[in-house]
Write the C-alpha cells for this entry.
Amino acid sequence: DGGITQSPKYLFRKEGQNVTLSCEQNLNHDAMYWYRQDPGQGLRLIYYSQIVNDFQKGDIAEGYSVSREKKESFPLTVTSAQKNPTAFYLCASSISGDGNYGYTFGSGTRLTVV
Amino acid sequence: DAKTTQPPSMDCAEGRAANLPCNHSTISGNEYVYWYRQIHSQGPQYIIHGLKNNETNEMASLIITEDRKSSTLILPHATLRDTAVYYCIVRVAGSGGYQKVTFGTGTKLQVIP
C-alpha cells in the first residue's frame, strides 16, 4: 500500500546536537511538507518542496534545514540553532497543483530534547 | 489561501449526529474546502472535501452553503472513536504552483458515552 513513512517515531536529542527526521513516500506525489505541532496547538509549516532540488521556507523555518534530492524523500534536520525543538513533527505530501487532491500525512515523529 | 474559523471544542452524545461548523468567509472561487481529523498523537487523516456541492462518503457528509462562506461536517452517528480534533482548511485548485495551507487549532470533538 502506498503511504508516507516517518522515522523514528520517538527521538531524543541532547541540547546542542543536530538530528535528522526521515520522511519517505511511495505515492509518487510531487509536493512534500513538514509541519510542527506543539501541545494543544495547530500545525505550523516549517518547509515545503514542490519538486526535486527545490524547497521553500514556511512560517517557522529558523533552526531547521531540509533537502529534496529524491522525489520520495524529504528529510528534516533540526539544528542546534532551534531554541525549542521539543514538539511533534508531521510530514505530508500531495500532488502538486490540483485542488482535487488533499494531503497525506505520516504518523509523526515526537522529538524531545533532554 | 483563505483562513478558516472553527469553534475550539464541541461535545456530542454517542450515536447522535455531530455537526461541526467552519467559517471561511473569504474563500475564493477556486478554493476547495477540506476536512481532516487528528486522533491523539497521530497524523491528520483526510475525511472529505468539496467545492460547492454537498458531498457524502462513507465517513461523513459535507454541507457547503450556497455562498460558500461556511460549511458543516456531519458525522451521522458519532462513536467514541470519532473523538478527535477536526480541521477545516481551504485549498486552491488549479495546475501548477505550491499551495501553502495553514492548519489552525481545529475543533476538539468529544463524543460522550
Q: What stands out?
A: The CA atoms of residues 4 and 106 of chain A lie 5 Å apart. The two ends of chain A are 36 Å apart (CA to CA). The first strand of chain A starts at residue 4 and ends at 7.
